[in-house]
Write a structure and sequence with these properties.
The complex is a heterodimer of chains A (about 450) and B (about 250).
Chain A (H helix, E strand, L loop, with lengths): L13 H12 L4 H17 L14 H5 L4 E2 L10 H4 L10 E6 L2 E3 L5 E3 L5 E4 H7 L1 H7 L10 H9 L4 E5 L9 E7 L5 E3 L2 E6 L4 E10 L5 E11 L4 E9 L4 E11 L4 E10 L2 E10 L5 E10 L4 E10 L5 E10 L4 E10 L6 E11 L5 E10 L4 E10 L3 H8 L5 H17 L5 H16 L14
Parallel strand pairs in A: 1-8, 2-7, 6-9, 7-10, 8-11, 9-11, 10-12, 11-13, 12-14, 13-15, 14-16, 15-17, 16-18, 17-19, 18-20, 19-21, 20-22
Antiparallel strand pairs in A: 2-3, 4-5, 5-6
Chain B lengths: L1 E10 L2 E11 L4 E5 L6 H9 L4 E10 L2 E2 L5 H6 L2 E4 L6 E5 H15 L7 H14 L10 E2 L5 H15 L3 E5 L7 H14 L5 E5 L3 H6 L4 E6 L2 E6 L2 H9 L2 H8 L1
Parallel strand pairs in B: 3-10, 3-11, 6-9, 9-10
Antiparallel strand pairs in B: 1-2, 1-4, 4-5, 7-8, 11-12
Classes of the chains: A alpha/beta (about 450), B alpha/beta (about 250).
Bound molecules: adenosine-5'-triphosphate and magnesium ion.
């Protein structure tokens, strides 16, 4: 286990990477061998999405992938003082903690933990071994994962990630918190693969914190498949607090059955390059989905949210609400696509994206796309890119609030609307505090977002 | 307290104020009246430091200091308060946080410690009662979704919180119902001392029944064309502005 295979790619050489991965790990679970081989084949055909790909027109993946990184095929043994990294400063956010270290589950011998109520959580690969039925039923099954080559790459290469299973009619007693740590002496390329399964009538609150600890370059290509059964409820908050050398591309596929409800809030506080892909399929009548997002960017950061919501059946509800502030030379992209299929009558779909640019060099591209094939629907979308309202600034200043403070209040007020949708009180308060400090420039780049945990 | 001398100001290159002269002493209330578009709000904007309005000529002395050199926040710290004709809605900024920050910045400018939370809440309660403001309004975002009258009441509430030396109230009476007008006027009167002064901009004599002005000025086309005692307001109410316009348009 001590051995670490590294791969240095001058040019991105997938075939070589794949061969080494297969050789190093073999296949504990035969099911995965075929899945991986097929994915590898598909990736070889598709390659990385290029500039010609409408969904990647602002992001050059080729240059991102042609940089040099180490690649780990196995978990590296890294010792760190967990208490040092996670000193909790919100005692009332009491969570079950899962740590991913460089994309691999990090924990004791017990790699899949079962809670008294029947919830299981832990390592993705352990779930493949211990819970083959569930694993094979859902792994790589969501149709949208065929979207582009990056997902195939992940399927072919990934060797771990987090796994959460909530059985039928079970509600997890307290939130589960996943902390994605990157701790490496070398520049690192990683590909976590995660799965969240809520059976019929299940309930879960999940918080994921992305946190690059080491000041090395990193590139993460992660895929999460989330399956939410009939009447199940999922509350999913992602807190992205990396540094300027960290790049991440995330695919989150959400599949929802009848009368289920999923709320996600993606709070991007920091990161050199972040691309979040949110794919939602509403596959049973009465399903409701809310996607919320907040992005705070500065320097030369790049932040890109891609949304695809598929209303496949009638009477579903979807809402996307993304807001952000861009400073310095930061660049932002919002691409929101809603597809209402012909049968999906009585659909309600609402989308909003509002951004504030603090400088003339900051840029925001926003592109709503509604594709509606049903006639009895309620849909709306709106996008604004603007500056801070100077009249409101004057109002605050005329009451004695200095310009700098007034500007902060305005920015904070702007973000508040999105943050207020986070339903776990202690988490929302914590995030409010992070956002305020981030806007004040006080949030040290490498400080602990992970202190959310117990 | 306030001396305005030959003040000229423009917006986007268009001259709006064309030589204003005005003197206001502590303990006084002056009313400014005048037809729409004559420059009343522009004058208020100049006094409170709105950058949009450019002063091209003239002087303003406040407590002996050159007011025009001060930032809006410095002016507020020095005791100037503007009651806006059209208060701005600021979604996401809570009234409580807004007022607490304003009070603490004012205290900081005076070298005082931040107000302690229980004193702050007490102060809020007291001042809300003074202007009879619905308690729930302060738990909302600044002016967001407030009715026209509620916004105006909120201006007086803020004034009561900040206790300015010079209050400029720009049509605080318009949009208020009759009872509200009385409450608001009473509020203003209760805050009045021999140390502070106010400029009350209004279109209606009615307000001046409650807030008795020492002087009434008529602003027309960027100039003060008439100044007199409080009886001028009555005369204007009766006769309108036509006679003033005629006199000056000749
Ligand atoms: N932001 C602006 N841009 C351009 N012109 C402006 C602006 N603000 C005011 N003005 C012009 O300046 C002139 C004076 O306006 P001001 O608001 O001072 O009038 P007022 O006397 O307060 O009128 P009212 O009684 O209607 O409130 C008007 O002609 C108005 O159109
Ligand atoms: Mg006016």
């Amino acid at each position: 286990m001590n051995e670490v295979e590294t791969y240095r790619n001058q040019k991105f050489d997938f075939q070589n990477l794949f061969n080494q991965s297969e050789k190093t790990n073999g296949h504990v679970v035969p099911f995965l061998k075929t899945v991986r081989e097929n994915a590898a084949k598909t990736f070889m055909e598709k390659g990385l999405p290029g500039k010609a790909d409408e969904n990647y027109k602002y992001l050059s993946l080729d240059s991102l992938f042609s940089q040099e990184y180490s690649y780990r095929f196995l978990q590296e043994i890294v010792h760190f003082d967990i208490n040092h990294v996670f000193r909790c400063d919100i005692p009332n956010l009491n969570t079950h903690l899962v740590i991913l270290l460089n994309g691999f589950y990090y924990g004791g011998k017990d790699r899949l933990i079962e809670l008294p109520e029947g919830v299981k959580y832990g390592s993705m690969m352990q779930a493949a071994v211990e819970m083959p039925d569930v694993f094979q039923k859902y792994y790589s099954k969501i149709p949208a994962i065929k979207t582009d080559g990056l997902v195939d790459m992940n399927t072919a290469l990934s060797r771990d990630g987090f796994f959460i299973y909530v059985p039928k009619n079970t509600v997890a007693g307290k939130p589960i918190q996943v902390v994605n740590l990157i701790l490496s002496a070398k520049d690192l390329f990683l590909q976590p693969r995660n799965m969240v399964v809520l059976e019929e009538g299940a309930g879960l609150e999940l918080v994921v914190c992305d946190h690059a600890l080491s000041k090395k370059r990193s590139l993460s290509n992660s895929v999460t498949e989330t399956v939410v059964g009939e009447n199940a409820k999922l509350d999913f908050t992602v807190l992205q607090n990396d540094h300027n050398f960290a790049s991440q591309i995330n695919y989150h596929f959400i599949e929802q059955e009848k009368d289920s409800r999923v709320d996600t809030n993606t709070i991007s506080l920091h990161g050199g390059l972040i691309r979040n892909n949110h794919f939602v399929r509403l596959n049973g009548t009465g399903a409701q989905n809310y996607l919320g997002g907040l992005y705070l960017t500065d320097k030369d950061q790049y932040l890109d949210n891609y949304v695809f919501v598929d209303h496949a059946v009638p009477q579903c509800y979807s809402e996307q609400f993304f807001k952000g502030v861009l400073d310095d030379r930061a660049k932002g992209v919002f691409n929101g696509k809603i597809l209402v299929r012909q049968d999906a009558q009585k659909t309600q779909a609402y989308q909003k994206n509002n951004s504030i640019l603090l400088t003339e060099d900051a840029k925001m591209h926003t592109q709503p796309q509604l594709e509606i094939y049903a006639d009895d629907v309620k849909c709306s979308h709106g996008a604004t890119v603007g500056q801070i309202n100077e009249e409101a600034m004057f109002y605050l200043r005329s009451r004695g609030i200095p310009e700098k403070e007034a500007r902060l209040m305005m920015m904070y007020g702007f973000t508040h609307e999105v943050i207020s949708k986070i339903r776990i009180d202690s988490l929302r308060e914590r995030i409010e505090d992070f956002v305020q400090r981030r806007l004040r420039g006080e949030l040290a780049k490498c400080e602990n977002c992970s202190r959310l945990c117990t | 307290m306030l001396i305005i001398k030959d003040l000229h100001a423009e917006i986007d290159g268009k001259e709006i104020l064309k030589g204003i002269n005005l003197e206001l002493n502590a303990g006084e209330v002056h009313a400014i009246m005048g037809p729409n578009g004559s420059g009343k709000s522009t004058l208020a904007a100049v006094l409170s430091g709105r950058e949009l309005v450019k002063v091209t000529k003239g002087k303003v002395l406040y407590k002996g200091n050159n007011l025009l050199e001060m930032s809006p926040e410095k002016r507020a710290h020095a005791g100037i308060f503007l009651g806006f004709q059209y208060p701005i809605e600021i979604p996401g900024v809570s009234m409580i946080n807004f007022m607490k920050t304003a009070i603490n910045e004012q205290r900081k400018a005076k070298g005082l410690e931040p107000i302690n939370p229980s004193d702050f809440l007490k102060l809020m309660r007291e001042k809300k009662a003074l202007v009879d403001m619905d308690s729930s309004l302060t738990s909302r975002s600044v002016n967001e979704g407030f009715s026209g009258g509620e916004k105006k009441r909120n201006e007086i509430f803020q004034m009561a919180m900040l206790e300015p030396d010079l209050a400029i109230l720009d049509e605080t009476d318009s949009g208020l119902d009759i009872d509200a007008l009385r409450t608001v006027a009473n509020g203003v009167n209760k805050l009045k001392t021999s140390e502070n002064a106010s400029i009350v901009i209004t279109h209606y004599q009615r307000l001046l029944d409650y807030i008795i002005p020492d002087r009434v000025h008529v602003l027309y086309k960027g100039k003060i064309v008439k100044s007199s005692g409080k009886e001028l307001a009555l005369e204007l109410e009766e006769k309108g502005y036509d006679w003033i316009k005629k006199e000056n348009d000749k």
